[in-house]
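Workshop exercise sheet. Pairs work together: one partner reads the sequence aloud, the other fills in the structure field after running the prediction. Swap roles for the next sheet.
Pair: D.N. / O.F.
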Amino acid sequence: MRGKEFLQGMRDGVPIGLGYFAVSFSLGIAARNIGLNAWQGFLLSLFGVASAGEYAALTVIAAGASYWEMAVVTVIANARYLLMSFALSQRLNPRLNLCHRMLIGYSVTDELFAIAVARPKYLNPFYSYGSYLTAVPCWAIGTAVGVMAGNFMPERAVSAFSVALFGMFLAVIIPPAKENKIILFFIGLSFLSSYIFTRFLPALSGGSRTILLTLILSALAAAFFPIDINNINNNNIQDGDQNGVESIS
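Structure field:
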């Protein structure tokens, strides 16, 4: 059973790994632009395994921010993984030991979480290990290759790949912004706020600015436009019943 689940995880992790390689290549270009070498970029992605979190770390490194600012920015950027981990913990066998739980939590990314939480019944940890073994090395190697390629590519090509990473983030925010005017409003407000802080508070470091704006804007959104959790839960239950999905409390 363990071997079968492990191989299934490896198979499901292949397309994710290929996508990770392409995205992390652009991340490697960004790492190269602030002076990191290929080995440093590899370690950054091997232990970080988070595009937004790593890019936030690179941003504050480039701004010369302190360690605590980098730590706080990274935690904020990766905060959604806490929620994913809470949800995933409900799919684990209560008898599963702490070591397995920590290893599963090592790489809870959006895509790996999606395939793990979709598994029927309890999640076998060896399925997650198989998916990690194919996806995570692709992410780390892609970053290292991006750093090395950036040292040999023409400057115009390096600039183009640097912009590609911003394109990835635009691809993340544009679809929900088109469907939800509140999200669109806060995206626009974040752009405006960032400009105002940069223009009128130049003494504030880039890391501190990111921390403050993230906390302030997210608090405003939660206070004035709270999400009705009961409706979401009811909709999920109805969808699960319609699709014959087993509910696990």
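Discussion prompt: Residues 238 and 244 are 10 Å apart (CA to CA). What would you look at next?
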